[in-house]
Amino acid sequence: MKPLDLVNLYPKSGQELLNAGGKELIEKLGIETIRQVVLAVMKGENLRNRTELLTRRKIAISSGALLLFFINGLKSDPDFINKLPERALNALRNGKLTKQQRWIINWILGLTDKAVQNVLRDNIQGSSQYHINYDMAMKEVAIQLETDYGALSGNLKLEEGNKNHVTLDWLFILHLLGAAGTQAMTIRGSDKSTYGKLFERLILGSLLHILGFELINRSKPVSKHKMVFWLSDRQEKRESDATALIKTGVGVRFDIGFIGRGNSEISLDKVSRFEREMEFGRANHLMSTFIIVDRIGVRSRLQELAKNINGTVVQMSMSYWPKEVAQNLSKIGDFSHALTSINDSEIDEFLTEAIKEVPLKDLLPDNFELESDDDNEE
User: Euclidean distance between the first and final Cα of the chain, in Å?
Assistant: First the structure.
């Protein structure tokens, strides 16, 4: 069996979910699901609390695909489980695999990328014993479980009346559960950084759209310099997560981070390198700085230190923090918006309606890719 033949036993739809870039991920998870997460964060909810549901959903979908992988394998070869560890190691050694395809093969061997680093020391070619030891361990446990609890048997089939079924036993279940466990760790670690990067853009972009700013493409000629914004402005000295121009000569740089109370000073260290002026078009703009963090610790000096760089700190843990952003923008000059004076009791309804008009997909450029950190497993 060729390396890609083994990978392709894992359903295409599951591979597409693992491979999804920014826009594809939104489509897979559902645009309205994503919209509700953005809205919840704007109302003060914890992003990680919200994305946990998305991660669980992704793990569930991937788990179904993983089960199909084992079923498809047994249909193609009744001795599939016994041959699986050796085939998987050969696929890692000889296959030209994408990152996500490598994940799938790792899972079959009970490994994550971090485990490959730590257990195999990144030496796939020299790991001649690993698959043998893994296979032996699974078989020894299967015998022990049968001794302790009795023989496990059963049949699985996908459709009613489908004569092609596969037989369950302890060894099948152990390999399936072992792969599912490492799959969950990989996806959790990947999603932690993936969702952070994705929602930085979506939340900032949604906020600025709701506040009346127009998204522009800075790489193209722009004649409008009033009430416009762009995202992830990569410059020589510093990258800001978003930049907004209130009018010619007056602008704001935004830095957003889903950082807990113990690490919020990290944001200040980053934004302290922002320049006070920015050239855009033919005009120089005096730039203010907005630092948006999840929350600030009781003893944090972030607010005090931010004032030294003309910075404003906003906590997303505060209910309806977008109102605070709007109020602070109004102090900079020539900015007015309904959110600056709206009653707190009316903000919920206002944001719920306003978020419906935000073009979420437009906030991600066509080439936006989500670089996940699958080593950061939980």
Answer: 33
Report the sign of the C-alpha dihedral through residues 338, 340, 345, 350, in that order: positive
Q: Is the dihedral of CA 333, 334, 339, 344 positive or negative?
A: positive
Tell which residue, 65, 76, 129, 74, has the closest CA to residue 100. Answer: 65
- Residue 58 neighbours by CB under 8 Å, 6+ apart: 17, 29, 187, 191
Q: Classify burial at 190, counting beta carbons within 10 Å of its beta carbon; exposed 0-12, middle 13-18, buried 19 or more.
A: buried
The dihedrals phi and psi of 27, each to the nearest 5 degrees, come to -65, -40
Is 64's pLDDT higher than 90? yes
Q: State the average pLDDT for the chain.
A: 81
pLDDT at 297: 60
Q: Among residues 17, 95, 86, which one has the least CA distance to residue 54?
A: 17
Residues with Cβ within 8 Å of 374's Cβ and at least 6 positions away in sequence, in order, are 99, 103, 112, 113, 114, 186, 189, 190
Provide CB contacts within 8 A for 120, sequence distance 6+: 111, 127, 130
| Burial grade of 52 (CB within 10 A; 0-12, 13-18, 19 or more) | middle
Lowest-pLDDT range, 63-77, 117-131, 241-255? 117-131
To the question of pTM greater than 0.90 for the whole model, the response is no
Q: Residue type for 155, please?
A: N
Q: CA distances (Å), 203 to each of 197, 233, 257, in order?
A: 10, 16, 11
Distance CA 325, CA 340 (A): 8
Residues 6+ apart with CB under 8 A from 234: none
